[in-house]
Write a structure and sequence with these properties.
The chain has about 130 residues and is mainly beta. Helix content is about 0%, strand content about 50%. About 35% of the residues are buried.
Length: about 130
């Protein structure tokens, strides 16, 4: 399993931007589909965005569509989440997740329980 470390969280005013990074180690990064999840206090952990192992396919939750962008750099073994036009309801701990997939699988992994590896999370707080 890969090890994942998130960074880039913080406090930002509504309307602002943050870029989260998730650095991987200990595995073949290009063999992993990746996802970003978030968990607000008292709520379930939910998928925010996902990206295929090649980066050719992406998914966004309706709540973040057109505001967030997921990307990956397989050479830098890092996945990113660019968050623009942030809202107070985006406040949560954001987690990076990885799922090793076969070479024949070019799709997305959207189910939380399917993921093999998780980062420790990074707090994002959006003030109104």
């Amino acid at each position: 399993q890969v090890q994942l470390v998130e960074s880039g969280g913080g406090l930002v005013q509504a309307g602002g931007s943050l870029r989260l990074s998730c650095a991987a180690s200990g595995g073949t990064f290009s063999r992993h589909a990746m996802g970003w999840f978030r968990q607000a206090p008292g709520k379930e952990r939910e998928v925010v965005a996902a990206i295929s192992r090649s980066g050719g396919s992406t998914y966004y939750a309706d709540s973040v569509k057109d505001r967030f962008t997921i990307s990956r750099d397989n050479a830098k073994i890092t996945v990113y989440l660019q968050m623009n036009s942030l809202k107070p309801e985006d406040t949560a701990v954001y987690y990076c997740a990885a799922k090793e997939v076969s070479l024949s699988f070019s799709g997305l992994v959207l189910t939380r329980a399917t993921y093999d590896s998780w980062g420790q999370g990074t707090q994002v707080t959006v003030s109104s």
